[in-house]
Amino acid sequence: MRTLYHLWLDSGSRKIRILLKEKGLDFQMKVEKLWERREEFLRLSPSGELPVLIEENGISLPGQNVITEYLEEAFPEPSLLGGSDPLDRAEVRRVAQWFDVKFRQEVTDNLVEEKVMKRFLRLGAPEAAAIRAGHANIHYHLDYIAWLSERRKWLAGDHFSLADVAAASQLSCLDYLGDVPWEKHEAAKDWYARVKSRPSVQPLLADRIPGLLPPAHYADLDF
Amino acid sequence: MRTLYHLWLDSGSRKIRILLKEKGLDFQMKVEKLWERREEFLRLSPSGELPVLIEENGISLPGQNVITEYLEEAFPEPSLLGGSDPLDRAEVRRVAQWFDVKFRQEVTDNLVEEKVMKRFLRLGAPEAAAIRAGHANIHYHLDYIAWLSERRKWLAGDHFSLADVAAASQLSCLDYLGDVPWEKHEAAKDWYARVKSRPSVQPLLADRIPGLLPPAHYADLDF
């Protein structure tokens, strides 16, 4: 069976979990504790990155971008990149990239990496300045979600797309830590409520990491 | 006419210059001095990143990944992603990503960013430790190029592909600074000599940045 090596609070892993569900593909999940630096894992993912998808024929696909484009090409229906117009698809990729790179660097890395991953990877104590930066930056990104979703039904156009998946993957990690100030961002919250109600996203809401429980509203569809 | 906003030593800009030439597309280039933080540019590229391609209809496409996938979809011939098998294409994207992300972080950021970009962006003096790390890490990546090119004609298979373009874009920036120890890496040098002889790469070899001239071998096809 198709296998996804992942970590619970890795946003790229969450993105591929949602995509596989959207495309109706069966898979099993295996937690890869990166901090154990398993040699067998480095053979699957020479760059050492997560997630890694092992296809049914045994071929390994490392990295969220490689997996995303592969899934779109091998299983085009339903498409998460929008219609057939390359410019529409470029807009989906642009917004997805915003969350994959800019949001991750400015928010997720400052909060999830500092508070959780550093502990596991033994990289020292969390830096207070990074955590403050993450809490400050998230407002500006939630405003961007509001701006987009006031102009479009979903973040990159009329349809739920990779852009929504990318944004939800970042935000669901932060929401697990109780780090999203939803109460100050009504429009972003409305968009996220619609995302949470999708069947492809609900498995994420059932995640429970041993020793690190989410706040009560995490799985609540009416939060 | 199609316009590419770029910077001379930005590896992503170099990648798109090669791709446009490989696809036989005409374009003009405009230098975007990121350190001037032009408001008009931020309207073209909300994330502030280079390169940005303005298509003939005026639509702007920001970021090397968005532009790369757009060019492949809008102008599929010749393809730089290999054939039609999604697994072959995944291998091209995997190797390209290695150079776009891992090589850039471990080598290019430590050398080009520290020695050149920091000066323009007024981010302070170069850090000696970063420069040492860049010089140490490059050997390991040149060994990887040798390993791949001993097993395949080009880095991701039988054909020149996005993987070769990605690697060449990083290395040509470093070569401009005289920072590639070719003399210790014969197999990587042979691969790069083949890359340099491609018509799509030759315009890069004619680059001359005012006040920062490349070493004599930079444009030499028989270096």
UniProtKB/TrEMBL annotation, chains A, B:
Name all GST C-terminal domain ranges: 85-218
Q: Which InterPro entries match?
A: Glutathione-S-Trfase_C-like, Glutathione-S-Trfase_C_sf, Glutathione_S-Trfase, Glutathione_S-Trfase_N, GST_C, Thioredoxin-like_sf
Give the first-level EC class, as a single word. transferase
EC numbers, comma separated: 2.5.1.18
GO-annotated molecular function: glutathione transferase activity
Question: What is a single Pfam family found in this protein's UniProt entry?
Answer: GST_C
**Source organism of this protein record:** Limibacillus halophilus
Q: Which UniProt keywords apply?
A: Transferase
Return the protein name: Glutathione S-transferase
TM spans (from-to): none
Q: Which Gene3D superfamilies match?
A: 1.20.1050.10, Glutaredoxin
Source organism superkingdom: Bacteria
Name all GST N-terminal domain ranges. 1-79
